[in-house]
Amino acid sequence: MANRKRRSARSGRPPLLSPGRPPVAGRNERRRFWAAIAAGMASEDAAVTASVPQAIGTRWFRKAGGMPPAMFRRSAKPLSGRYLSLAEREELAILRVQGAGVREIARQMGRSASTISRELRRNAATRSGGLDYRATTAQWHADRAARRPKPAKLAINAALRAYVQDRLAGVVVTPRGAAVPGPAVSWKGRRHGRRQDRRWASAWSPEQIAHRLRLDFPHDETMRISHEAIYQSLYVQGRGALRRELTACLRTGRALRVPRARTRGRGKSFIVPEIMISERPAEVADRVVPGHWEGDLILGLDSSAIGTLVERTTRFTMLLHLPRMAEHGVDARVKNGPALAGHGAEAVRDSITGTITSLPEQLRRSLTWDQGAEMSQHARLKIDTGLDVYFCDPHSPWQRGTNENTNGLLRQYFPKGTDLSAHNTDALEAVALALNTRPRKTLGWRTPAEAFDEHVRLAHTTVATTG
């Protein structure tokens, strides 16, 4: 190896280094790995499925930017029959070791003798000084020869690359043209947390850049690129165009592309079809029978929260006090312990139970909530209160329209960006009273408190009569 490097130095050419282990040796494992990724698995689980170490799977995923290489995509074309496959090369190697001649090998494999002769001559292993034939080395030679290097458009078009990079990562300036650097954010190769500083840049999206090119250069066809090509230049290493660090200028800030199947698999484990809103009784939508509630959390500064319960028929509102735990803000905390901000599953369950069990049983029929993790203990809540709990579809706040409207009214008292933990139980009861004693057009200008008290009296009368 040292002699080879010295000869390369004298000739002025770069040294020809060993290619190492032929990558085809792990092709089947890689194919299984990317198939598992496409099915929505995490890279560690996909590595176990592919029978490779988890660190290897993570390395494959990060090096590819979360995007499967072309040969492992579902849309990849199968190998044409005119080319030898790895299995055929393995059979050829065995027959060669057994001493079979070229024509004998061709007859047994059903191939032309010229194909076998060419294969033995072109793709033989030469490191030992001879022409030994090894299947994996031959497959590596064939893959390298079949490679069609097509440089990325951004790599060869300097004007297009400058345009894309300036719109994506350009400096933010004042109306007078003075640069505003923003916070200094170091590149860590991963997405920064939602509440951490992000890099300031012009931050056009790749789609905006791709479409704006047609307006800025209507007659220059060389200034065209798709948004997908920009994403690939950002995510895939070795494209030679845009640096991976520029992903910090994207709105999501993702350093890796997230497979679509993985995002579909992020549903809450406590959600089953039997408790979805589609299974809710029709009487709930009619608003005729009282006792059906809608609930949600309104969030404030530093993870503070207040729970809201609204009765669908009367619009009667009850507020849940969710104080922070004593350990909140302390560095030392128990791993996988309760939510210290005060609106974890146990805290919300206990608060709902303590608030709504003061009502007659006839006014505790159902509760509709969004798919927040704070309701993961809905089964225990049903046992404690008798409420049938139903969950809305993802991203469908209109399915809790009464609660959403009430939350809008509550923001008059609890604005966004304020610390909601500053309000004690007495303050919440006072605000709830203010809303419940406000006349409502939908109730014929009666107040929610008047309408709800009527149902409470009717429920007590019914209990006394049947008793």
Summarize the structure in short.
The chain is an alpha/beta fold and 467 residues long.
What is the name of the CATH architecture of the largest domain?
2-Layer Sandwich
Largest sheet report? 5 strands, mixed
What is the fold named in CATH at topology level of the largest domain? Nucleotidyltransferase, domain 5
What pattern of helices and strands is seen along the backbone? HHHHHHHHHHEEHHHHEEEHEHEHHH
Low-confidence spans = none
In the residues, how many domains can be counted?
A: 3
The CATH class assignment of the largest domain is: Alpha Beta
Structural class by secondary-structure content:
alpha/beta
Shape: elongated
Describe this protein's structure.
- This protein is α/β, with parallel strands linked by helices and 467 residues long.
- The chain folds into three domains: 128 residues, no CATH class; 106 residues, no CATH class; 194 residues, 2-Layer Sandwich (Nucleotidyltransferase, domain 5).
- Helix content is 40%, strand content 7%.
- The protein contains 19 helices and seven strands.
- Strands 5-4-3-6-7 form a five-stranded mixed sheet, sandwiched between helices.
- The chain is elongated.
- The mean pLDDT is 83.
